[in-house]
């Protein structure tokens, strides 16, 4: 490990409950997406008459439990349960971001307005997931338990499918920008490790970075030492037990 890498500074971005909730929702949605795709194109007849169809239905339900259960548990037990309301708080910097984003992401260049912990694109994605996720969940339960028949049942199916398509489109954009877009990979790394490079945080989330840089920033070497201490502490706790 080079000295320069050891001196790279990081800020704490996410706590473990945040990470668990995020990845459970992501896993649940991917499972819903894959099984939902198969259900949509195979049709209801095969779902009732073949083992594969039944397996897709069960997998879809498991995905639904993860997609709904993880944020519900987080909301009930996390001290940051109201954090999702950030999706509804928009200001002048958000509208400036919307104006500058196409050039920044697809052509290149700077000029993006300062952002808080979540940038405008993330807020927009949160908003879509909250609104259409609720529609997806409610219509999904209605279809699962056959709450409605006739035209109401058909409307539940339409709402379910349209909500799924809209979330899938935004999920694809989110996946591209966080995983495959070279300039934004630090955001994905932050969700996997809990830490974000300070340089990236200052550039992309300056309003938030200025609030936390004095009490939540450490170097890579210090991160490694913390991890080693945590491992030793866990071993000691195991021996004492």
Q: Beta-strand level of the residues, as a percent range?
A: under 5%
Fraction of residues in H or I helices? over 70%
Largest sheet: 3 strands, antiparallel
Give the CA-based shape.
elongated
- Find the count of extended strands (DSSP E, 2+ residues): 3
CATH class: Mainly Alpha
Average pLDDT reading: 85
What is the CATH superfamily classification?
A: Transmembrane di-heme cytochromes, Chain C
Low-pLDDT stretches are 1-6
Q: Between the first and last Cα atoms, what is the distance in angstroms?
A: 35 Å
How many domains make up the coordinates? 1
CATH arch. level architecture: Up-down Bundle
Strand order of the largest sheet: 2-1-3
Number of helices: 10
Give the ordered list of helices and strands: HEHHHHHHEHHEH
Q: Under CATH, the topology is which?
A: Fumarate Reductase Cytochrome B subunit
Structural class: mainly alpha
């Amino acid at each position: 490990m080079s000295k320069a890498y050891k001196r790279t500074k990081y800020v704490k971005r996410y706590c473990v409950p945040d990470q668990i909730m995020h990845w459970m929702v992501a896993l649940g949605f991917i499972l819903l997406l894959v099984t939902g795709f198969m259900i949509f194109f195979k049709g209801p007849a095969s779902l009732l008459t073949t083992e594969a169809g039944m397996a897709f239905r069960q997998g879809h339900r498991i995905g639904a439990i993860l997609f709904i259960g993880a944020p519900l548990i987080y909301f009930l037990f996390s001290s940051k349960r109201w954090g999702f309301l950030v999706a509804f708080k928009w200001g002048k910097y958000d509208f400036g971001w919307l104006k500058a984003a196409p050039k920044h992401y697809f052509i290149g260049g700077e000029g993006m307005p300062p952002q808080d912990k979540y940038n405008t694109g993330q807020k927009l994605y949160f908003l879509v997931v909250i609104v259409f996720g609720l529609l997806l969940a409610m219509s999904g339960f209605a279809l699962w338990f056959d709450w409605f028949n006739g035209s109401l049942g058909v409307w539940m199916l339409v709402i379910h499918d349209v909500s799924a398509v809209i979330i899938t489109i935004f999920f694809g954009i989110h996946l591209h920008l966080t995983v495959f877009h070279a300039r934004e990979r630090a955001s994905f790394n932050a969700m996997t490790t809990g830490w974000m490079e300070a340089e990236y945080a200052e550039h992309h989330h300056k309003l938030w970075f200025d609030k936390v840089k004095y009490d939540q920033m450490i170097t890579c070497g210090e991160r490694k030492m913390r991890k080693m201490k945590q491992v030793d502490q866990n071993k000691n706790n195991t021996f004492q037990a």
